[in-house]
Amino acid sequence: MIDFRTEPARYRHWTLSVDGAVATLALSVREDGGIAPGYTLKLNSYDLGVDIELYDAVQRLRFEHPEVRAVILTSARDRVFSAGANIAMLGRSTHFDKVNFCKFTNETRNAIEDASAHSGQRWLAVVNGTAAGGGYELALACDHILLVDDGSTAVSLPEVPLLAVLPGTGGLTRVVDKRKVRRDRADFFCTTGEGVRGSRALDWRLVDELAPRSRLAEAARAR
Fold it and tell me: What is the C-alpha to C-alpha distance for residues 51 and 134, in angstroms, rounded to an integer?
């Protein structure tokens, strides 16, 4: 039986801090902290346990901290934002578990957008390392995406070329309908596993802003 009850003091994968009107939610997934045995959560990849904590944080910020006007969502790891859903975990899961995992992760991303739309909390994704698959989909749920411009960090939706499945948490819809990425560019983006970085990511509307690593924190505060 999975226990969905948690609180910030019990988080294993997220650190939540509130400083006046600004909150910071930083992801640092414990590799050995999977909700079930048999897989390792490498590269800030996530399973249901990681997302249970995220959903709790979203709701606590919204209803316990109405003074918060901006939420910075970032990674506490160096040069990796998130590799998305853990593939080994999905490979070991039953169809029922996969469906419930996707339903819950979609509800979490929708909750971020709902908090922005109805509680006035603006969410800023500070992508300080590569964001792939569900990692980029998490950033897509935010109002503004700030990407580090270091020549190597990329955003990608590699599910189709690498796994022959569609992105599972709203990536295609948000790229086209929310971010208004041109259809031909969206097609290319979602069928290449290489990802898009720097000025091209900005030009294609995959991100909203670039900053060198030395100015990333300053650029985030300016928002």
Answer: 11
Give the Cα separation of 133 and 168 in Å (integer). 9
- Note the pLDDT tens digit of each residue in 24-38: 999 999 999 999 999
Task: Please give the average per-residue pLDDT across 49-67, as a whole number.
Answer: 98
Structural domain span for residue 28: 8-222
Per the domain annotation, does 63 fall within a domain? yes
Give the Å distances, CA to CA, from 177 to 80, 173, 182, 206. 27, 6, 10, 12
User: What is the number of domains present in the chain?
Assistant: 1
Q: Are 160 and 191 in contact (CB under 8 A)?
A: yes
- What is the number of other CB atoms lying within 10 angstroms of the CB of residue 3? 8
Residue 212 tokens read as 């060198």
Nearest to 80 by CA among 121, 133, 122: 133
Q: Is residue 1 part of a domain?
A: no
The candidate with the shortest Cα–Cα distance to 56, out of 102, 6, 106, 13, is 6
pLDDT value, residue 221: 86
The pLDDT-based confidence of 193 (bands split at 50, 70, 90) is confident
Among residues 173, 178, 171, which one has the least CA distance to residue 85? Answer: 171
The CATH number given to whatever domain includes residue 105 is 3.90.226.10
Counting DSSP H helices and E strands in the chain, the numbers are: 9, 10
